[in-house]
């Protein structure tokens, strides 16, 4: 086969989106147009270094041909690929070259609009409204030069900025507009993948589970039409794994997360795949595997919170969990980042006995949920508020709030979250003296945990039958043990002798089937005893 024949076949493969074939057949290209095809095909089939080299050669060929705008375009896409791989220093150099070339030729051209994309991205996290202004300019370049890729990037960026600024409804409308251009086939495969993944991320930021489900299905179909596609297939698997986890398909979610880790390799997005895998291990009780996956996510630059703190909580290390969450929440200023921490922060602060801090976090989460206006955000917020009400001793208000939360989780088809909410409902019933109601709720929760494979949750409910077998005084002692109190401190707080406290703890260990204070702490958290604020709310007997 002649070189000309290979090039013709390579162009045909490129048009069919057979990226691996196009990359192989165009490897001998020398003309800049074919080098650009080679560069894009290489990027899309995972040949990053080959793609960089092709962009460089195309850039040089266009310069030699006296086509500075085309040379600048190639320099920009070389830089953009480096940015996506977090190679910021090299990317900065190529962006500077792009800018200099365009300044030297003093051209009012579409390429300047692409440069504005990187300017806007630089401030997206720190100043969303400044980014919105810049992305509005990107969209105007796209409209003025009738450039669909640039127009879509402008709409996408404006939507991202508004979501991060808390203007969820307006932001989501722009994200949908960007996706309309993608699904209509109006943009290039490179930009289509960028838009898909960015929109899904913002759906997560906005707690918009319905949109996330729809766009994940669309991304899956888009990836399936291009079997050689590498960069976006891994991210698609991560999104699929998260949705599967929410909907209770945990074995399949683990498979998807593992495959995402393999496919993403050393790419920056692999960090999120390892974090998702860690979260699945955590809820399944595979604590050693969870810890290793969290550490791998951290090594790759992902802050492994709140998952790692929740792991420590499940292991009975309440104070370590509380310290980690206080650090994470304290150093996170942006609304989006805080929104993903606050539900866990409420849970852990209650376990640590800091109900005031839990209340503050629940109130902040409620404000965020009101702005988001999505069922998922409302479910998270409502459960957090109910948990705090229960911890504050207002079981009747908690019961009403928690039943509303359960309804939302049930409507979202989120069985694990629904079951965890039913545990809290059972504890509220128990505090109100409704033992039969508590037994029904806890039985339903235990059954759901067993069906899901939520081993830690199921074990916590299975030990000694159900929470409530302890006397009221034993519950009080267990709560203080879980708070890290020594026997002497417990004796002083409850006006008991240390000998009596020792006896209570021995009885508690026997009843719940543990042999250490750390295991008792884990049981107290998982079973909900930390919500019980004193001996006066019931129990079969009170030893003093």
UniProtKB/TrEMBL annotation:
The keyword Ribonucleoprotein does not apply. Keywords: DNA-binding, Transcription, Transcription regulation. It comes from the Bacteria. Residues 463-528 form the HTH luxR-type domain. Signal peptide: none annotated. It comes from Phytohabitans aurantiacus. This is HTH luxR-type domain-containing protein.
């Amino acid at each position: 086969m002649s070189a000309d024949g290979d090039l013709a076949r390579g162009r045909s493969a490129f048009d069919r989106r057979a990226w691996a074939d196009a990359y192989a057949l165009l490897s001998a290209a020398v003309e800049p147009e074919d080098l650009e095809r080679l560069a894009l095909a290489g990027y899309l089939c995972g040949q990053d270094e080959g793609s960089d080299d092709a962009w460089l050669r195309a850039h040089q060929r266009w310069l030699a041909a006296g086509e500075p705008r085309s040379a600048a375009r190639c320099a920009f896409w070389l830089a953009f690929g480096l940015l996506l791989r977090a190679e910021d220093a090299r990317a900065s150099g190529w962006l500077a070259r792009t800018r200099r070339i365009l300044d030297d030729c003093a051209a009012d051209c579409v390429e300047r609009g692409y440069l504005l994309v990187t300017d806007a991205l630089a401030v997206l996290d720190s100043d969303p409204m400044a980014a919105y202004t810049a992305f509005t300019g990107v969209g105007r370049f796209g409209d003025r030069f009738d450039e669909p890729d640039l127009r879509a990037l402008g709409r996408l960026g404006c939507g991202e900025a508004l979501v991060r600024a808390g203007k969820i409804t307006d932001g989501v409308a722009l994200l949908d507009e960007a996706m309309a251009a993608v699904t209509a086939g109006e943009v290039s495969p490179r930009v289509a993948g960028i838009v898909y993944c960015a929109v899904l991320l913002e759906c997560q930021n906005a707690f918009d589970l319905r949109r996330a489900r729809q766009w994940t299905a669309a991304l899956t179909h888009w990836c399936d039409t291009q079997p050689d596609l590498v960069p976006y297939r891994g991210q698609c698997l991560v999104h699929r794994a998260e949705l599967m986890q929410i909907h209770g398909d945990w074995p399949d979610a683990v498979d998807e997360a593992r495959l995402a880790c393999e496919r993403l390799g050393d790419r920056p997005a692999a960090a999120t795949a390892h974090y998702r895998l860690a979260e699945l291990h955590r809820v399944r009780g595979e604590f050693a595997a969870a810890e290793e996956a969290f550490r791998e996510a951290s090594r790759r630059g992902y802050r492994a919170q709140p998952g790692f703190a929740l792991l420590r909580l499940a292991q009975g290390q309440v104070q370590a969990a509380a310290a980690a969450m206080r650090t994470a929440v304290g150093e996170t200023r942006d609304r989006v980042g805080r929104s993903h921490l606050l539900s866990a922060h409420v849970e852990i602060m209650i376990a640590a006995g800091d109900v005031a801090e839990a209340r503050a976090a629940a109130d902040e989460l409620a404000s965020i949920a009101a702005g988001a206006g999505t069922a998922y955000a409302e479910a998270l917020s409502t459960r957090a508020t109910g948990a705090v009400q229960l911890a504050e001793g207002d079981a009747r208000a908690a019961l009403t709030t928690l039943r509303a939360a359960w309804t939302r989780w049930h409507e979202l088809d989120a069985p694990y979250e629904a079951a965890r909410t039913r545990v809290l409902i059972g504890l509220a019933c128990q505090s109100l003296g409704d033992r039969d109601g508590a037994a029904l709720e806890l039985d339903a929760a235990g059954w759901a945990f067993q069906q899901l494979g939520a081993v830690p949750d199921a074990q916590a409910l299975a030990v000694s039958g159900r929470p409530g077998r302890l006397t009221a005084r034993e519950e009080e002692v267990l709560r203080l043990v879980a708070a890290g109190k020594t026997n002497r401190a417990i004796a002083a707080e409850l006006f008991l002798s240390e000998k009596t406290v020792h006896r209570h703890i021995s009885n508690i260990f026997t009843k719940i089937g543990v042999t250490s204070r750390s295991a008792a702490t884990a049981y107290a958290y998982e079973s909900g005893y930390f919500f019980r604020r004193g001996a006066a709310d019931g129990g079969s007997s009170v030893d003093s």
